[in-house]
Amino acid sequence: MLLQRLREYSERLDLPPTLYNESPVRYIIELNAEGKLLNRQPTDTADPSSPRTRRGQRRLVPQVQRASGVKPLLLADKADYALGYAGDDSKPKRHAAFIELLDRCAAETRETAVTAVREFLRSEPLAQLELDDTFAPGDIITFRVDGVFPTDIPSVRAFWAAENDPAARNSPIMQCLVCGQDRPVLDRLQAKIKGVPGGQTAGTSIISANAKAFESYGLEASLIAPTCADCGERFTKAANDLLANERTRIRFGGMAFIFWTREEIGFDLRTFISDPQPDEVRGLLESVRKGGRAPDVDGTKFYATALSGSGGRAVVRDWLDTTVGEVKDHLAGWFSRQRIVGPYGEEPEPLGLYALAAATVRDVQKELAPPTPRSLLRSALTGAPLPPGLLYQAVRRNRAEQGVTRPRAALIKVVLLSNETTDKEDSMVQLDPDNPSAAYRCGRLLAVLEQIQHQAIPSAGQTIVDRFFGTASSAPASVFGRLIRGAQPHLGKLQRDRRGAYVALQRRLEDVLAGLPASGFPRVLTLEDQGVFALGYYHQRALDRAQAREAAERRKAGAASPGDEPLVDEDLSENE
Predict the structure, then answer these.
(1) Do 137 and 235 sit in the same domain of this protein?
(2) Distance (Å, rounded) from C-alpha 176 to C-alpha 11?
(3) pLDDT in tens, 464-503
(4) Cross-strand partners of 304
């Protein structure tokens, strides 16, 4: 199904000639029509200042997949093939095969430019050229004859296509799994997919079997999934186009996620996933709530796949076949579930996929595994529940960092709500003082006790959260009694020195404790409860900060009452 949809996408592209692809060509050997050198030094087109041209300017040149054998590329190849350059690992047969291919091309096309290159290569090319110490024999060399690249001549391109036609090599006739027709099929795909994370620099194959473990029914190499030459080239070039276009590709966590619609409709999924803008998200939520439909857009088929590399193979991690309308509906639910106030009580803003995935690890580049972004993407686009493993990762990071960041709080909320049978709109967005959950109350209580300590001892080097967050969030009964007793001297100091702060904090402490069950603090909290604990802690902190800012603004405006003092200093640290 994936390969068929990629082939369909290729019909929308302006594809290069058969078995031609854009590659960096570093050196150009200038010749005249008789095959004489116009310049003893090859023209070096490399531009180190640009990653795209650091190995030469990119041109359409012949390409075909090469295995371990000798396989020359027509008129554009490395120095050992094109010039017979004697490196340490050179193989003399390579240059001979290059000349033999060139002879056949000159005989069939009768092009003057091809004949000129052949004459030059027959007259000891290395003796005529001046190659300095900077010469890179591993980069591509091609030829230009009186200003014309032979590789651009239509008859040369036609020769190259015919040279690699499976029908001309007595390839087996089988049913192509893409087009369904009985045709000569490839024993190896003739092109590679470029830009798949984890794959080889030269590219990866989406169909490959180079060991007995990967073979089936006695079929080897690419014959395990028979593909005709046309379909193989088309779906490979379609994948390369999607991977090269930032509008249709998201790459992180060792994975590349590509997506497209059956017809071009201007639907920009990448922005919603990578950099969601509040106005656009609000517009999406509003359109879904109103139930308005645009049949010409929402009924369009939408496809997506996740790819990662394993050596020379491209591994298909996921595949999605749906419609734009369904994707919009699920995206609206996704952004609704992740809504949560900012750390200072700000209005909820949408978070991109990267921020949510990064919240689960310490070092994104080293620790983020493909299953994490893949699960987030599938949930965002299909509404599928998120695995409990993501909740575990978020809770573990809370314990390691002794705190809760906004992205991690949003991720916890999404995981919890995605596994609920009923999804209440606007639930757990901000502090819920009536929430009866003991875990939620314990999270709030830790935040209140932290504020009591901070107000009494602003310069404390280590807070109770630094010391007890992990235990309080997993085994509340073992620690909260001691923490409440330890808060009494702090409250006594506040009662003596800051009466207003004491009254407010004492009232808040009593309100939180009053909502706990009669049996007291839970002995242990489940994984889900630890997530709820983190939300209670985060919500309480956000409310405290919001109230502190409001009080500070009233004081600046001269409208503060005598007892109006902030319970949270605005510079209180926050792990954001």
Answers:
(1) no
(2) 18
(3) 999 999 999 999 999 999 999 999 999 999 999 989 889 9
(4) 259, 320
User: What total number of domains does the chain contain?
Assistant: 4
**Residue 293 CA, distance from chain mean position:** 30
- Domain edge (last residue) among 229, 244, 259: 244
- In whole angstroms, give the CA distance from residue 340 to residue 343: 9
Helix (H) or strand (E) holding 514: helix 499-514
Tell me if 190 is assigned to some domain.
Answer: yes
257 lies in a domain?
A: yes
- Name the percent of the chain lying above pLDDT 70: 93
Phi, psi of 50 (to 5 degrees): -125, 125
Token digits for 274? 């990578």
281 half-sphere exposure, CB direction, 13 A CA radius: 24
> What distance in Å separates the CA atoms of residue 100 and residue 108, rounded to the nearest whole number?
13
pLDDT tens, residue by residue, 268-285: 899 999 999 999 999 988
Cross-strand pairs, 185 = 228
Q: Which amino acid is at 254?
A: G
pLDDT attached to residue 61: 95
Judged by DSSP in three states, 90 sits in coil
CA count, 13 A, side-chain hemisphere, 49: 0
What is the value of pTM for the model shown? 0.83
Closest CA to 186 of 73, 74, 307, 65: 65
Q: Which of 163, 195, 227 is the last residue of a domain?
A: 163
List helix spans (H) across 125-256. Answer: 125-128, 154-163, 229-244
Q: Are residues 139 and 254 in the same domain?
A: no
CA–CA separation, 281 vs 357, rounded Å?
19
Could you tell me the residue range of the domain that residue 53 belongs to?
20-163
pLDDT for residue 423: 57
Whose tokens are 């502190």? That residue is 548
| Residue 548 placed within a domain | yes
In a domain? residue 570: no
**What band does 540 get if pLDDT is binned at 50, 70 and 90?**
very high
Indicate the DSSP class of residue 545: H
Instruction: Render pLDDT for 434-467 as a digit per residue (tens, 0 to 9).
Output: 999 999 999 999 999 999 999 999 887 788 999 9
**C-alpha span between 432 and 439 (Å, rounded):** 13
